[in-house]
Automatic annotation (TrEMBL):
The keyword Cell membrane does not apply. This is X-Pro dipeptidase. SUPFAM superfamilies: Creatinase/aminopeptidase, Creatinase/prolidase N-terminal domain. Residues 159-366 form the Peptidase M24 domain. The lineage of its organism: Bacteria, Pseudomonadati, Pseudomonadota, Alphaproteobacteria, Caulobacterales. It comes from the Bacteria. Coiled coil: none annotated.
Length: 389
């Protein structure tokens, strides 16, 4: 029994060119000269260039007329030229170490033109451009980027589906591999190897493994704990396929669950189901969080973010970043629209005892929400293997 769908093709240059064209149209409509994209996931989204952040600016100017200009240090020219050979075409502007990349970017803008800046770019990039252009000629490019990236194409959905299926299969294999005395670090190594074996880009960069009362901590404990009989096990992990993320959590017991744990686990599963059912087209993201949180409050948890209860948002957007806007949280009133993708993880924390998080993801369609991965079948049969037998 496996959960793997067919592999998905990578994003094409043609799709990235369409993204650039749509952005350019929005820049013109808003009276903006260009968008400066830093070495963030948005650089890969628009151009296909995947670059590591550093103290030196490497990025791209996307102009309102649709032109793309890459900016990089002169000594990185050959490397950037090689990487952009399979990316969206554009001239490469270079700067020497004693020169200002911000002046270089400014010189490419029309006189008086306003520059939108990638909201995920480092503060020093914003500050450098503001000093050269003046504060009145820079503006937040985040709304432009989020408006595009939050609506996933069919190709993106396929890549996300593949990534999540790989991680669900790794979660299943991990449960069968666990043994008394194994350390959390050893579990992480196993998960990383299995992700790679199935075609993911590894899992060690993001893998939370918690045993017993460490499961109370939403992002896990700091020690290297050994697994003991009847421990609660919480594993939250993911991988990458062509840069697109998975992020799946399973919670179960290595041995015999107590009746108290069974009750709380069932509450968690129902909260996740109610969040999914509330994801209606046009409804605000906040309504999904409310559905889970109100249900839990009615059972005596909380209220709000108080413990015992749900200490964080119900879900987050996901794509080229593992956490993307919009979010399933009280303050986010973004209307749900086809193509949006979210985690669904209304964790329950019982301080000093255990935490339960069941995390799966869904995407919005014209007919409503669709699961990327089926939620946990039951506490005793998390992956539905007994039910399928």
């Amino acid at each position: 029994m496996t959960f793997l769908p067919p592999s998905a093709p990578p994003i094409t240059v043609a799709e990235r060119q369409d993204r650039v064209a749509a952005l350019a149209a929005r820049l013109r409509a808003d009276g903006l000269a260009a968008l400066l994209v830093g070495p963030t996931a948005s650089l890969r989204y628009y151009t296909g260039l995947d670059w590591h952040p550093s103290e030196r600016l490497t990025g791209a100017l996307i102009h309102a007329d649709g032109r793309v200009q890459y900016i990089c240090p002169r000594f990185e020219l050959d490397k950037v030229a090689g990487l952009t050979a399979g990316a969206v075409a554009g001239d490469i502007l270079t700067w020497e170490e004693e020169e200002s990349p911000y002046a270089l970017a400014a010189a490419s803008l029309p006189e008086g033109g306003v520059l939108a800046i990638d909201d995920q770019a480092a503060a020093f990039i914003w500050l450098g451009l503001s000093r050269v252009l003046g504060a009145e000629r820079v503006t937040d490019g985040g709304p432009l980027i989020v408006a595009q990236r939050s609506i996933k194409s069919a190709a993106e959905i396929a890549l996300l589906t593949r990534a999540k299926a790989i991680t669900l299969e790794v979660q299943r294999r991990t449960r069968h591999w666990l043994k008394a005395g194994v350390l959390t670090s050893e579990v992480k190594d196993f998960i990383d190897a299995e992700h790679r074996a199935l075609g993911g880009e590894g899992g060690s960069w993001f893998c939370l493994v918690s045993f017993d009362d460490d499961t109370c901590l939403p992002h896990g404990g700091e020690g290297d704990r050994a697994l003991a009989a009847d421990d609660v096990v919480l594993i939250d992990t993911g991988t990458l396929v062509d840069g697109y993320h998975s992020d799946i959590t399973r919670t179960y017991v290595f041995g015999q669950p107590t009746e108290d744990f069974r009750r709380v686990w069932a509450h968690e599963k129902e909260a996740q189901a109610r969040a999914f059912a509330a994801a209606a087209l046009g409804a605000p993201c906040a309504s999904v969080d409310a559905a889970a949180r109100d249900y839990l409050t009615g059972l005596g948890y909380g209220p709000d973010y108080r413990l015992p209860g749900l200490p964080h948002r119900t879900g987050h957007g996901i794509g080229l970043d593992i956490h993307e806007a919009p979010n399933l949280v009280r303050s986010d009133v973004t209307p749900l629209a086809p193509g949006m993708c979210f985690s669904n993880e209304p964790m329950l924390v019982i301080p000093g005892r255990y935490g339960v998080r069941l995390e799966d993801h869904f995407y919005m369609t014209e007919a409503g929400p669709v699961w990327f991965t089926e939620p946990s079948h039951s506490l005793d049969d998390p992956f539905g293997e007994d039910a399928a037998a």
